[in-house]
Design a protein that fits this description.
Radius of gyration: 18 Å
Order of helices and strands: HHHHHHHH
Oligomer: single chain
Number of helices: 8
Strand content: under 5%
């Protein structure tokens, strides 16, 4: 039988667990990335002189390639340490965003960027939720993952708001893109020390 005390004890255990806190930090970065790109990529491309159709196609490709990436990394998460896959994912995001900024923005580079970043888009979800279940078991997974996802949404809010605010102030998205690269590297690092072993029964 379930009890409120059992849930509260699980939450207390989770928020005293270093790995759970680091997962929240990492998923904050995920939210920042996906919300900033999904919201501001069309305006960024228009500012660079590209047509609206290019932006629409890019967002469509992100959604298309997201399905393959999420499936593949979920599959790999059953065979390899999820925290290492997450670390690699965030590092790859930082590299892909860096490449997008280094090369001249064109229709071709935009569509390539959309395909690759789409492949990495929400591939973090099966791995992050999988680590939560791995550490604490499935009984309160919905509640525990809900808090991690709330961190994701805070990152999403900041990514959308900061992107617009900085563009209004500076007339450029460059500093936000650079921030996204730094956050990707930071998220890659914070996943490495996560203790992903089962905590044991309460």
């Amino acid at each position: 039988p379930e009890s409120d005390n059992d849930l509260f004890a699980t939450l207390k255990l989770a928020f005293s667990h270093n790995g759970y806190i680091l997962l929240n930090v990492g998923f904050f970065v995920c939210g920042f990335h996906v919300a900033f790109i999904a919201t501001h990529l069309p305006a960024f491309l228009t500012d660079r002189g590209l047509q609206n159709m290019t932006a629409a196609t890019a967002l469509s490709l992100i959604g298309l390639f997201n399905m393959g990436g999420s499936y593949l990394f979920g599959y790999l998460g059953d065979r390899y340490r999820k925290k290492y896959l997450l670390s690699m994912l965030y590092l790859l995001r930082a590299i892909v965003i860096s490449g997008f900024l280094i090369f001249p923005v064109s229709k071709t580079t935009t569509l390539i960027f959309a395909c690759v970043i789409g492949f990495l888009w929400l591939a973090t979800v099966p791995l992050t939720s999988g680590i939560v279940a791995q550490m604490f078991g499935p009984r309160h997974l919905s509640s525990l993952y809900g808090f991690v996802f709330f961190s994701h949404q805070i990152g999403a809010f900041i990514g959308v708001w900061m992107g617009g605010h900085i563009f209004d102030v500076t007339g450029s998205y460059n500093s936000v893109w650079l921030g996204a690269i730094v956050l990707g590297i930071a998220a890659s690092i914070v996943h490495l020390p996560i203790n992903d072993r089962f905590c044991g029964k309460l």
